C-alpha cells in the first residue's frame, strides 16, 4: 500500500466530519439553581439528492463481475462508489447509493436512510465548478498483514487513485484513499457482499494546495484510524459499521 498523507474518515458507507450535528447541552447551576441553557444551534438542512443521470453522465457500471470472487466485488464497489459526476451528483453519497448493488441488504438500507447534513467540501466544490466527473484506478493490497479470510467473511484493502475531468477541459486530482472492506456471504459459492467500509482519505485537493475539508468522506460507518497511516493491519477492519456514512467513501 502506498504511503500517503491522510486523515481518518469512513464510507456508508463514503458522514463528512464537518457534518456532525451539535447536541443541545445544559449545565447544572451550583447550589440548586436552575440549569442554564447553552445557546441553541439550529440543525443543518440535509444535502439534497443528486439529479437523475442524463445521457452525457460519466459514471462507472462494472460488468461481468464474478460475485463469488471477493476481490472482484471489492474492486467493483470501489470503482462505483468513487465514480462521481458533479453535473448530476450533489455529494459523494450519490455515488455510494449507486454502489448499493454490492452491499449487504443491511448496509444498503443504512446508506439509503442516510442524508448528509453538510456540504461535500472544497475538493468537491472545485470539481463541481468544472462540472467534472471522476475516474479511478483501484489496486488490491495483498501483503498478508490483514485478517485471515473465512468461508463466510473476507477482508480486502484497496488503494483508490482518482482523476477529475472537467467538461471545460480542466483536469485535476480526483479521490484518493486507502479503503478497507469487510465482505460477507451466506455460504460457499454464494455471492460476496460488502458489509463494512472504512476509508483513510488522502489529504490532496484537486488544486494541489492544502484543503481544510479534505477529511470529508462519502461513506457511512465513520471510524478512526491514525492520521498518516501508510499501511493496513487487522485493526483497520475491527470497527463495527454504523448507519450514519457515521465513512464513508463510499
- Counting DSSP E segments of at least 2 residues, the number of strands comes to 7
Tell me the major beta sheet. 5 strands, antiparallel
In terms of DSSP E residues, the strand content is: 15-25%
Structural class: alpha+beta
Q: Strand order within the widest sheet?
A: 1-7-6-5-4
The outline comes out as: globular
Radius of gyration, in Å, reads: 19 Å
Low-confidence stretches: 1-30, 205-232, 238-250
> What pattern of helices and strands is seen along the backbone?
EEEHHHHEEEE
**Helix fraction by DSSP (H/I, runs of at least 4):** 10-25%
What is the annotated CATH architecture?
Roll
How many angstroms separate the termini? 19 Å
Q: What's the overall average pLDDT, rounded?
A: 75
The name CATH uses for the topology is Nuclear Transport Factor 2, Chain: A
Tell me the name of the CATH class: Alpha Beta
Commentary on this structure:
The protein is of the alpha+beta class. It has one domain: Nuclear Transport Factor 2, Chain: A (Roll), CATH 3.10.450. The chain contains four helices and seven strands, in the order βββααααββββ. It has helices at residues 70-81, 92-98, 105-113, 122-129; strands at 6-9, 26-27, 36-37, 133-140, 153-165, 171-184, 193-202. A five-stranded antiparallel β-sheet has the order 1-7-6-5-4. A hairpin with a 5-residue loop joins strand 5 and strand 6 (171-184). It is globular and about 45 Å long. Residues 26-64, 199-250 are annotated as: Disordered.
